């Protein structure tokens, strides 16, 4: 840093002598030496203090990044180094979303598709298991809960590994874990083996999602980050939809064991592809000097040519750098946002998993056929896909606060509307199915928006850990809904939908408490406490 300062002073003095702008040079030198970047940022008339001869230096050389406010417009993919040190955050956030970066987003999205499929695979296989093992549906409640407990354990564990050893390694490890566990489940013959393997599967699926979202967020430029994360997370309900289509074809021909075998082989094949193609996060590589040659090569593939031997930093994260631990999530800058996110995740995912695990059982308890109940859950997932896509655009255009808050309240309202929709064993169920689709649209839109919001709130050093802990709290909400879902169903459909509505109101309260919401694209952002300086 000292050498960089001397370099800046030397350049400033040379230009000041050549241009005879000593007064302006002394002003700028003072700012660089003392590190008072905010002084110049706050000075709205700084151009009047810098003659044209010096203004040209500011706009064309390395002093630009040190002096201009964050978010200032400049040519894409042009960031000048200070003493051969490149700001990776600026390179990524101010550049275009290249084809290569989109390919990396697709790879992370594929992992989420299999994540969504393997989370819901037990629900698809449940009718066949009940018939083959001659047990009641309620006997599988603890198995569903154990799977969510595995997610609660796997989320923070994989998040820690992602922050410590890299998102790439953590993501691939999670995909391999739930792939192998799913294949092994095809060989079990009782509840003991099913329960153990469901826990392992939950650990893998619980850890894959936060690392996939962290990777996607760190590959994308700022103005495309919300869209990239949400396009990845839309693959979660998409995985459930595709899993349902696959189950409809596989189960009659090969049974539930064949479904589990296919559901395990496909993720393992994807893991091989990820190992061969998926690189590590550039912002993670920037924090480890031994990995800078890999970072230079990756940036070159993204269209950023850097000289050999260049040094890197994530300047927006230097101030917020901390150990990836639970305590760091409750620092003075992050405590409020963490509390709000945890409330929202707990409530929202509790509501969603009450639908995933018990909606067919609730509908069949009201006299509907299994086919109609399955259709209801499929339409719920389809609505979720649409909701994620629509809210991706809304968050990009409006920022995250208004879309997620209005979505949470609207979801609660749609649940209350289902209280008055008649559920009849015979007749037309179009209105019921449509309301389920609307509820799924809003619930999944809010849920996936929260992952993008969490990826925005936490700095790089704790991002995977922060997202993972938030997801883990959400899994705990899902665990409770899995355990007590049977009691809710026993109380009747009105109680069921009332619980869903109350949960979404609580999610609204948590999201309203979060301070560092995603900004609208194109709107000057005030950097709030706890938010990365580059965002």
Which key features would you list for this structure?
single chain; 535 residues; mainly alpha; Growth Hormone, Chain: A; 2 domains; two-stranded parallel sheet; 23 helices; 2 strands; 1% strand; disordered N terminus; disordered C terminus
Please give the structural blueprint.
Elements: H1 2-19, H2 22-34, H3 37-42, H4 46-49, H5 52-60, H6 63-67, E1 85-87, H7 88-93, H8 99-133, H9 141-165, H10 167-185, H11 191-219, H12 222-233, H13 235-277, H14 282-286, H15 292-301, E2 311-313, H16 315-318, H17 326-329, H18 335-365, H19 370-398, H20 401-417, H21 430-457, H22 463-491, H23 493-513
Parallel strand pairs: 1-2
Helix pairs in contact: 1-2, 8-10, 8-11, 8-12, 8-13, 9-10, 9-11, 9-22, 10-11, 10-13, 11-12, 11-21, 11-22, 12-19, 12-21, 13-19, 18-19, 18-21, 18-22, 18-23, 19-20, 19-21, 20-21, 20-23, 21-22, 22-23
């Amino acid at each position: 840093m000292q050498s960089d300062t001397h370099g800046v002073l030397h350049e400033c003095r040379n230009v000041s002598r050549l241009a005879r702008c000593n007064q302006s040079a002394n002003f700028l030198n003072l700012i660089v030496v003392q590190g008072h970047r905010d002084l110049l940022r706050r000075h709205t008339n700084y151009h009047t203090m810098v003659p044209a001869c010096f203004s040209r230096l500011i706009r064309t050389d390395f002093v630009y990044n040190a002096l201009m406010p964050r978010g200032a417009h400049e040519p894409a993919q042009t960031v000048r180094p200070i003493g051969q040190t490149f700001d990776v955050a600026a390179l990524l956030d101010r550049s275009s979303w290249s084809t290569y970066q989109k390919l990396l987003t697709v790879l992370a999205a594929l992992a989420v598709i299999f994540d969504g499929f393997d989370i819901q695979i037990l629900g698809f296989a449940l009718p066949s298991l009940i018939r083959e093992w001659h047990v009641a549906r309620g006997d599988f409640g603890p198995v569903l809960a154990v799977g969510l407990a595995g997610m609660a354990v796997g989320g923070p564990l994989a998040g820690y590994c992602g922050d410590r050893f890299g998102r790439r390694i953590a993501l691939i490890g999670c995909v391999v874990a739930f792939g192998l566990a799913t294949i092994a489940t095809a060989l079990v013959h009782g509840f003991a083996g099913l329960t153990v393997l469901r826990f392992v599967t939950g650990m893998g699926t619980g850890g894959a999602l936060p690392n996939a979202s962290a990777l996607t967020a760190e590959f994308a430029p700022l103005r495309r980050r919300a869209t990239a994360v949400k396009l990845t997370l839309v693959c979660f309900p998409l995985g459930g939809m595709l899993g349902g289509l696959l189950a409809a074809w596989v189960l009659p021909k090969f049974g539930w064991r064949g479904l589990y075998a296919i559901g395990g082989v496909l993720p393992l094949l994807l893991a091989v592809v990820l190992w061969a193609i998926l690189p590590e996060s550039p912002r993670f590589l920037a924090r480890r000097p031994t990995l800078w040659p890999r970072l230079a090569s990756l940036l070159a593939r993204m269209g950023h040519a850097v000289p050999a031997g260049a040094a890197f930093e994530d300047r927006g994260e230097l101030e917020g750098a901390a150990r990836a631990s639970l305590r760091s999530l409750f620092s003075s800058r992050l405590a409020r946002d963490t509390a709000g996110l945890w409330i929202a995740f707990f409530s929202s995912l509790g509501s969603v998993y009450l639908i995933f695990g018990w909606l067919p059982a609730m509908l069949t308890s009201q006299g509907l056929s299994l086919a109609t109940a399955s259709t209801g859950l499929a339409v719920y997932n389809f609505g979720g896909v649409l909701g994620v896509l629509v809210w991706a655009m809304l968050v990009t255009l409006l920022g995250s606060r208004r879309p997620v808050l209005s979505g949470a309240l609207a979801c609660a309202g749609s649940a209350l509307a289902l209280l008055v929709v008649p559920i009849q064993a015979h007749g037309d169920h179009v209105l019921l199915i449509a309301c389920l689709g609307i509820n799924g649209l809003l619930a999944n839109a809010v849920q996936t928006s929260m992952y993008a919001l969490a990826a925005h709130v936490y700095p790089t050093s704790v991002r995977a850990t922060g997202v993972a802990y938030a997801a883990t709290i959400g899994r705990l909400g899902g665990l409770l809904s899995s355990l007590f879902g049977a009691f809710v169903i026993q109380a009747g459909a009105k109680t069921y939908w009332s619980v869903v509505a109350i949960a979404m109101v609580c999610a609204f309260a948590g999201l309203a408490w979060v301070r560092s919401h995603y900004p609208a694209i194109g709107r000057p952002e005030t950097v709030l406490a706890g938010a990365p300086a580059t965002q």
